[in-house]
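Entry under discussion copied across for reference:
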Amino acid sequence: MANRNLEKLASIDAQLRLLVPGKVSEDDKLIEYDALLLDRFLDILQDLHGEDLKETVQECYELSAEYEGNHDPKKLEELGSVLTSLDPGDSIGIPKFLRRVDTALKNLGINERVPYNAPLIQFSSWMGGDRDGNPRVTPEVTRDVCLLARMMAANLYYSQIEDLMFELSMWRCNDELQVRADELHRSSKKDAKHYIEFWKQVPPSEPYRVILGEVRDRLYQTRERSRHLLANGYSDIPEDATFANVEQFLEPLELCYRSLCACGDQAIADGSLLDFLRQVSTFGLSLVRLDIRQESDRHTDVMDAITKHLGIGSYRDWSEERRQEWLLSELSGKRPLFGPDLPKTEELCDVLDTFHVIAELPSDNFGAYIISMATAPSDVLAVELLQRECHVKQPLRVVPLFEKLADLEAAPAALVRLFSIDWYRNRINGKQEVMIGYSDSGKDAGRFSAAWQLYKAQEELIKVAKQYGVKLTMFHGRGGTVGRGGGPTHLAILSQPPETVHGSLRVTVQGEVIERSFGEEHLCFRTLQRFTAATLEHGMHPPVSPKPEWRALMDEMAVIATEEYRSIVFNEPRFVEYFRLATPELEYGRMNIGSRPSKRKPSGGIESLRAIPWIFAWTQTRFHLPVWLGFGAAFKQVIQKDIRNLHMLQEMYNAWPFFRVTIDLVEMVFAKGDPGIAALYDKLLVSEDLWKFGERLRVNYEETKRLLLQIAGHRDLLEGDPYLKQRLRLRDSYITTLNVCQAYTLKRIRDPNYNVQVRPHISKEIMETSKAADELVKLNPTSEYAPGLEDTLILTMKGIAAGLQNTG
């Protein structure tokens, strides 16, 4: 029994995808650095007087305005901020966490450690790889991000190897290590690089240091080659002098570990060396593996250009069957698909050059190739063919992403067709990954219908995989907020359908929650513990399956909720106008928060808007419409139809983890909401002829809240979570003040002639009574908005997001 439990634990594969698309918080380390610079700047100002002081401040304003106005957060900067949080030698604490797991196993009577190479927790990212609707992510950006990550990894490991060299000074070793050390010592024609100033060469009587010295030197070469390629595009350091993959890096470390164990030095082996092995096994030579994401239509455009160039027709116009037939015939053949004479547009070059970058760089830089808006097997086969044509030696696993409601409904059938292809089944070797999108499905149909369809889609996808003998890993594309599928990690995993985890899952970790999850050691421990415990618990004690009558009721309510949501968001003629007036959505799009555009396409309405600004805008006004819209109509209609449905809903809440978590999360959002604040935004920013529409939405809000509390059996919001209730109550007065300030700031931005006559907005009064402040503000002539308003708006956005612990 004990061994079986250890096997289950060691087989856990929880992969966390790190994102920074719309971060509005600041990195603590950067804030500390900025504070030091500010202190120094103030010291300089003290020595200036008169015109010198004025000229210095004016120059600072102009530089700042030029930088902020033209500078979008770049992928390299975003990646650097995340890698700061994921320093494997400092704050991430993976080895310490695994030692805690070892101790827990020992307390259970399992006297074995978790194998150092057990996957358990792994990290990936798509910063610099997500090109879905983002023209700023070019092949060059992808290449630079990979090189930067590799350079940072080698630099971090370099210092740790030097520490190990000092620690492993013993001479006793096994024959295997001694032979290797002798070979290295004989082959060395020159002194090793200094690992301490007064030592020029590692003596042969210290075999572990000889081995680790070679590792250290190759790490140095790996770092320098990546640095040269990043800076100049070329390097004189040959590739064979570096570590090409993590297996090469681990091999000498494993040799040292085996030798120590064989010579009776198990305690030393299980010290710093074991910790380092676990770090390297977790982070590899790239710290985080980069996933590539591209929209399926972009691959279709490439295939269409190729087939037209070959004179065999338009790929875009072909049926799905003909597409599959042609793709499979090309995959089975060996001739090149196209030559250098293929006419290439800028868009085609972008897609093909991305595959060339994947082929050029070491394979362990990359994780998966994700196809957004995937609908058919040909979407997957096209990527497989492009990988082959661009000479990707170790093809990335291809992951279809099903996002909208209709795509989720059709996903099981698409997977059946894909697994029915013999060539593809041989290619995947019994393993497949599928990503399901929480954000776009929620924006498409509302949170209620999306949550239920995601639940059903997982059940059906797992059934299909079992039918074909394939192990399916579900990749949950959750956002940081409830409107985008976010929520407490432990409960979210435990509420998944039975048999859909099986010790393996992938989850996105949004940029705005990375600091709260991994920024400090104790936060890192808690996050990793929750993922590991929930994954293990779901497999050993699966949640209950819903009763048939519960399913029927959910199906009925989902139809009602979707109709209600779409009737307002997509079919109400003036909804888009109301949304853009009542929220700071337009201002968000101009403020360079995150590196991705706020829209996938420059034109269009709600359908073209990304889920992040869609949720962010409603969160800022405390109305949270995308989260609750549709719930009230569904509850009201089924209860009016039959009062027994109320009792069934209450039974579902008490007995079904999925339904309870769904209701609890919406209840938490209501606790953060305030329709009175939303009414203030309407009064100040919305035209009078739309006031009645806003009032109708607020009546819907109150009715939904009342029904939700009735189903949960609560008299007040968060009755079952007094700790969170108290925290929100303490923050409420601060957030409300920021909301009022933001509403009046938006009014002044949109109507420069508007004069604020009431408190608490007193910035005008302050400016009139402070001549020095007034002069300083006038020194910023390039601001897009009136003096000080842009900064005020950004500060209120950050403050509200911090207070609600939500952005987009």
In short: The domain at 292-540 is CATH 3.20.20 (TIM Barrel).
